[in-house]
Amino acid sequence: MKFLVVDDSPTMRRIVVNSLKRIGYSDIVEAGNGEEGLEVLDASVEFVITDWNMPVMGGLDMVRAIRSSPDTSSLPILMVTTRSVRDDIVQAAQAGVNNYVVKPFTPQVLKEKIESVLEKVKGAA
C-alpha cells in the first residue's frame, strides 16, 4: 500500500514515515503542503495522511480538492494534527477526513487508526 504523507514540518513527516515503516508500510511519498501533495498524488497512492495547518495550502483545502475529483473521491484520508477541539474534528469530518489523530501519537495509535479507516472503506465498497 502506497502512502502520501503531507506535513510542512520535515521532523513531523519523518516521525510519520518512521511510524509507518515500524508498522510495516514502506511505500511512501512526501509533500510539504497541500499543493505539493496534490502535485505528487497519482493513481498509485492508496492512503493520504495529512496535517491541518500548513502554508500555501492547508490540509482541509487539500482534502476538499481530493474529495472533489472523481478519481480520488474515495481515497482514505487520515488527518494528523495538534488541533484537538471537537469543532475542529467535526470540521475535518465534514471536509471528508476518514479519521483523525491528535499529535503526539504512537506508532500503535497510527496503526489502529489506519486499520479502522481501511475497514470502513472496505465495508462501504
Q: Could you tell me the number of beta strands?
A: 5
The ordered string of helix (H) and strand (E) elements is EHEHEHEHEH
Note the beta-strand portion: 15-25%
Radius of gyration: 13 Å
Distance between the termini: 17 Å
Considering the protein shown, what is the CATH homologous superfamily? Answer: Response regulator
Q: Which strand order do you get reading across the main beta sheet?
A: 2-1-3-4-5
Parts with pLDDT < 50 across at least 5 consecutive residues: none
- Number of H/I helices: 5
Determine the CATH topology.
Answer: Rossmann fold
Integer tally of domains? 1
Shape: globular
CATH architecture label: 3-Layer(aba) Sandwich
Structural class: alpha/beta
Q: What percent of residues adopt helix (DSSP H or I)?
A: 40-55%
Mean pLDDT: 94
CATH class division: Alpha Beta
Largest sheet entry: 5 strands, parallel
Task: Give the key terms.
125 residues, alpha/beta, Rossmann fold, five-stranded parallel sheet, 5 strands, 46% helix, 18% strand
SSE blueprint:
Blueprint: E1 2-6, H1 10-22, E2 27-31, H2 34-40, E3 47-50, H3 59-68, E4 77-81, H4 86-95, E5 99-102, H5 107-124
Helix pairs in contact: 1-5, 2-3
Question: Please, could you describe this protein's structure?
Answer:
The chain has one domain (2-109): Rossmann fold. Helix content is 46%, strand content 18%. The protein contains five helices and five strands. It has a five-stranded parallel β-sheet with strand order 2-1-3-4-5, sandwiched between helices. Helix 1 (10-22) links the parallel strand 1 (2-6) and strand 2 (27-31). Helix 1 (10-22) packs across helix 5 and helix 2 packs parallel to helix 3 (59-68). The longest helix has 18 residues, at 107-124. It starts with a strand and ends with a helix. The model has no long low-confidence stretch (mean pLDDT 94).
